[in-house]
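Quick start: what a row looks like.
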Amino acid sequence: MRELILTGFLLFTACSWAQTSAPTKQEKAAIGRAKNQLVSSIDQSLPKVTLEFFLKYESGGAPITWEVNDCGEQTGNPETDQGRDFPMCVEADFDKDHVAVSVMISVGTFKKGPVGTPSLFSASITEQNGISRPVQHLGDLPKELHRPMPKSPRDLPAPEASKATASSG
């Protein structure tokens, strides 16, 4: 029985390891470039701190996942996608207080690599109920994350209370 459990664990570990490929040299460079980009160059309303510092601060210390992707531009149709130089985005994701945050920074293209000035491609916040809302500017992220909960509607006075008040006046 022990051997069966050990074999299952080793098989699971090997399969998990095979599915997570190590980032390529180009991906590491793109992620490093995005992490070290000053947020003030992306949004002038922000201070001169790196994107990594800014997101760590806004996440409240929650783990941030960094990955390179095509900014969602591939169609999935090989005929349409063949030969295209897709944009390269570095996506940073974290969860804070049951809210998922995603920030995508455009850093270049897959054929040319990380080139040009990185810019905000998109940012969004997805609530626990699955409703997602875009964040137009990186500088809007702090207020969106710290937005107070909507106030509940106040209860209406009971009908008897309003009748008693009206007849006594």
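That is the whole record. The first strand starts at residue 65 and ends at 69. The helical segments are 2-19, 25-36, 39-42, 51-59, 78-81, 141-145, 159-168.
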